[in-house]
Design a protein that fits this description.
globular; about 15% strand; Rossmann fold; 12 strands; four-stranded parallel sheet; alpha/beta
Length: about 300
């Protein structure tokens, strides 16, 4: 019965997309049934780039708020919808404008690189944005010897390994990735000794030390396709495993630990996408003065896409 209802909803969504000239962008951490209706499926960098290239009138962004805000900033003339208005990113909410300004006062000669997992207001206060896929390139190329990196301390620590610049971290983190422990990796390797370990750079340093590869979700997809290995331990949100299995049916993928689920990413359901298109809810807006400054930081990020 549920399968039939899903099929009916997908048909309605397809019809509304055509009627309203809409494109559905979906992040790799979304539910499987949401990934299946994507026009474009990817990580933050790929979806940001895609948002700037689309010629449609409307974008339905199946992800969390900062992603939909980014799409609106890059494509201000398009209607951008977030199917679940409460879908936010806890890490993005860990830093506010006042806290960033304190860091800028403390380190006046430093430039600010903000992870794309930040609010539009924070992006507007930044010199450049980055994603996990291009954080190293952005930091290496920014014109400063000291870089304030916000908000993820683990990504900041990882980036610092590849540059002589001083990377000054903020004490933020992803609650999903910090749940992955070194003990989880060791246990998984004991069960699957011939598996290759992929982890996300948002993971703690002791987890990164045990990985065969450290990569963004897009990087993991590319590595898995190219690898001759047949088993993989995946250290990131479980939504990626759905896509990995779908694209590599002859290979096996295992989670690096229990409960690797982002509750906010899993809020969006097919009914939400349908109602978002039908009622054009919930529209994402960004104030012009914030958007114009944030756009400059995002353009710096897109140079290294």
């Amino acid at each position: 019965m549920e399968k039939s209802n899903d099929t009916h909803l997908v048909e309605k969504i397809t019809h509304l997309k055509e009627e309203k000239d809409a494109i559905i962008l979906v992040h790799n951490y979304q539910r499987g049934e949401i990934q299946d209706i994507a026009d474009f499926l990817g990580d933050s960098l790929a979806l940001s780039r895609q948002a700037g290239e689309l010629t449609c009138k409307m974008i339905v962004f199946c992800g969390v708020r900062f992603m939909a805000e980014t799409a609106k900033i890059i494509s201000p003339d398009k209607v951008v919808l977030l199917p679940r208005k409460e879908a936010s990113c806890p890490m993005a909410n860990m830093i506010n404008k006042e806290e960033l300004q304190k860091m800028k006062i403390k380190y006046p000669e430093a430039r600010v690189v903000s992870y794309v997992n930040t609010t539009a207001e924070i992006k507007a206060e930044s010199d450049a944005c980055c994603t996990s896929a291009n954080a190293i390139a952005v930091v290496q190329n920014i014109d400063a010897e000291r870089v304030i990196f916000i908000p993820d301390k683990n990504l900041a620590n990882y980036v610092s390994r590849f540059t002589d610049k001083e990377v000054i971290p903020y004490n933020g983190y992803c609650y999903v990735h910090v749940r992955i422990r070194a003990e989880d990796i060791k246990k998984a390797k004991k069960i699957h000794p011939d598996a290759v370990v992929f982890v996300h750079p948002e993971c703690p340093p002791e987890v990164i030390e045990l990985a065969d590869e450290v990569a963004s979700t897009a990087g993991m997809l590319k590595l898995a396709r190219a690898s001759e290995a047949r088993k993989f331990i995946i250290g990131t949100e479980e939504g990626l495993i759905y896509r990995l299995k779908k694209e590599n049916p002859e290979k096996k993928f295992f989670a690096a630990g229990p409960a690797l689920i982002c509750r906010n990413m899993k809020l969006t359901r097919l009914e939400d996408v349908y109602l978002s298109l039908k009622e054009e809810r919930y529209k994402v807006e960004v104030e012009d003065n914030i958007a114009s400054r944030a756009r400059k930081a995002l353009n710096e990020m897109l140079k290294y896409a």
